Amino acid sequence: MLTKKTHRIALLFNANKIFDREVIAGIASYLSSRRSQWELFLEEDFRLRLPGIDRWQGDGIIADFDDPAVAAALENSAIPLVAVGGSYENPDDYPAGVPYVATDNFKLIRLAYEQLIGAGLNNFALFSLPEAQTNRWAQEREKAFCALMRRDRLEPQVFRGQSTNAPSWDEAVQQQIAWLRSLPKPVGIIAVTDARARQLLQACAVADIAVPEQVALIGIDNDPLANMLTRIPMSSVVQGANEMGRTAAHLLDQMLHGVRLPASRILVPPAGINVRASSRHQAAKHPHVMRARHFIRQYACQGIKTDQVAEYVGISRSSLEGYFRQELGCSVHDEILRMRLEAATTILESGECNLADVARRCGFTSSPYMHSVFKRELGCSPRAYQKRVLAPQDQQEELQKDDDVFDDRESLSR
């Protein structure tokens, strides 16, 4: 029996970024489904360091070419190489002579734009990044946004702001607030990353701008950490980064086995969009309802009561309840519970397993109470919900059959 050769592969990524982590996860997924034997080189802290890479004696490289320093360092590499990065409007901007797997920047922006159109919005803007060689992907997303605006005969509203750093943070926030206030309302804003979207959500909170009634916001990356750091659950486009990693690994695997690949370009579309509270725009006719929902979105998970919402709005509880019934067909308490439920489902989708901690973080008085709300509103327990959303597609139907039995046992155990 022949022993398969072990190939030494370098993965040149900065895994502190969600995009790079997802690409690496896709590579790992490919390897687990094949019999390929790869010995993977990454820095111990999973960061990217180029010094010495030209002397590395390996069999293949998969690298993030969004960083121009990486592209320059590997320009004359004799080792089989697959590049990963963003798509470009101009074909001449792609690296020459290298198989290239790209996230489709145009489709990322179009998916977010179509979601905002579907929410009934007519004004749109983009929150980008300062122009830099390391931010070329952000400029490509700007181009996509402007192209869509011109197609629909709208004036592009693009704000780049400042890069994030401690000395200029306060000034950056004030600039964001000034820009937000200058926009016609209501407005749908696409941020080029979840990190930028999170900054805008904070700016809206500081400026008391209602989200999503006045500003509906969508980020890109579906970053669980960025979402956990926001008071309002954040909508986000899910990049196809995992699929990009699998595709890049497949291409390199072919090259390692003697297949000669042309300098092909494979554009991977977004995997979907997670629509959460930050972009669920519903035009509120009454200002008291809009103000109340703004307060609820920010503080529902901190255990607020209906009386506190009414006090914030500045009217009696009975008057506020009447406005809610008239406009939304529900009580103030129902809206608070809805926001807590959305926060809980978001945390469970990230893989959190301690239900008591989830209940506490989302403002439920106890884990059994959260269980009863899940059963009433979603027809399943929190644990069954988590198992279903995290399961591979081919296991979804089987889990659905088991849910009733599982729910009954879990309920009895409480």
TrEMBL record:
Keyword terms: DNA-binding, Transcription, Transcription regulation
KW Transcription regulation (keyword) present: yes
Biased composition (Basic and acidic residues): 398-414
Lineage, broadest ranks: Bacteria, Pseudomonadati, Pseudomonadota, Betaproteobacteria, Burkholderiales
Domain HTH araC/xylS-type: 290-388
Organism, as annotated: Massilia terrae
A Gene Ontology molecular function term of the record: DNA binding
PROSITE patterns: HTH_ARAC_FAMILY_2
Region (Disordered): 391-414
UniProt protein name: DNA-binding transcriptional regulator
Lineage top rank: taxon: Bacteria
InterPro entries: Homeodomain-like_sf, HTH_AraC, LacI/GalR-like_sensor, Peripla_BP_I, XylR_PBP1
